Amino acid sequence: MKNYFIVNKASRTGKAAETWNRIEEYLKNNKVEYQVHFTEGAGDATEFAKVATSTGEQVGLFVMGGDGTLNEALNGIVDFENTLYTPLPSGSANDFVKGIGIQGSAIEILDRALKTSEYKSFDIGKVIYDGGKVRLFGVSAGIGVDAYVCLQALDSKLKKFLNRFGLGQATYGLLTVGDIFTMPFADSEITLWYKGEMKESKVKGTIFAAAMNCKAEGGGIPMVPFAKPDSGYLTAFHAHDISRLKCLCLLPYLVAGKHEGKSGFEFLNFDKMKIKMDTPMCVHADGEHLGFFEEICFECLPQALKIRG
Question: I need a surface site. Which of 144, 225, 238, 275 has the fewest CB within 10 A?
């Protein structure tokens, strides 16, 4: 089995380069054969993953970077059946690695993966937008304030500053406070499919809707504390029909994972969910900005991703 590495040395404001140096030394000392591709810009990880997983043979795909790099590589996988995926965390949040329960440093994860052919299968999500475009996600996808915070964080000077002190994950919470009072809300029509049944509803004042595969996003905010990435379905955390002030007052409960049952906060398990809004809202997948759209669809792909480590 060939080993391919996709490496973003710029993640965590460049500190990931030190992690790669340690990995490179490990590979050399253990005489591991591999090919490596270093990302230089957006989309590189996707293209490298396409090449690595298009051979028809089983491959080990090791991706080192933050959640954005991991998402790009995920979207490049051509042959899921023959790809053993290993995320090597080097970002500021690392929500995906934490969400699927992988423990240890990048070196420890790498060591475990190379010593076994065993894997565990996890669900992934799919978001369909802009008339049929598709983006896969491992952690979450969402609309509204949730997505706009992710957009701001991509080029946030605050995040870069906090990363110097290992506090980059705090960026999301700080940005959320401001966005609650500035982002427009939208009335929505929701169609949901779950366990063979379809339900339709109309909702006033959607603030955000986060389709969660893992329990936390944005540096560890437990949007759906009970979510499991191997459950076979996704769970939407939908905030709607409450005032901006009340939403702000509920944020401490959200951060503490104590928001279940609070008025205006709703959990929806689903296999597939369509949302149609009366005004375009910001959309993200694993923190990557997709644009502003009036219609969006989320779908679960059960047990699609094979993980080692």
Answer: 225
| CATH superfamily placement of domain 2-118 | Probable inorganic polyphosphate/atp-NAD kinase; domain 1 (3.40.50.10330)
The predicted model scores a pTM of 0.90
CA distance between the termini of the chain: 16
pLDDT at residue 158 above 50?
no
Residue partners of 162: CB distance under 8 A and separation at least 6 = 92, 168, 170, 171
Most distant pair of Cα atoms in the chain: their distance: 60
- Residue 35: pLDDT band (50, 70, 90) is very high
Closest by CA to 72, choosing from 61, 81, 82, is 61
What are the beta bridge partners of residue 273? 192, 298
**Per-domain residue ranges for the chain?**
2-118, 125-302
In SS3 terms, 76-118 reads as CCCCCCCEEEEEEECCCCCHHHHHCCCCCCHHHHHHHHHCCCC
| Cα dihedral sign, 131-132-136-140 | positive
Give the pLDDT confidence of 286-305 residue by residue, as tens digits: 989 999 999 999 999 999 99
Query: Is 56 within 8 Å of 79 (Cβ atoms)?
Result: yes
Q: Which two tokens mark 263?
A: 């008025």
What pLDDT digit, counting tens, does each position of 76-131 carry? 999 999 999 999 988 777 899 999 999 999 999 999 999 998 999 999 999 999 99
CATH class given for the domain over 125-302: mainly beta
Q: What residues contact residue 58 under an 8 Å CB cut-off, 6+ apart?
A: 1, 82, 83, 84
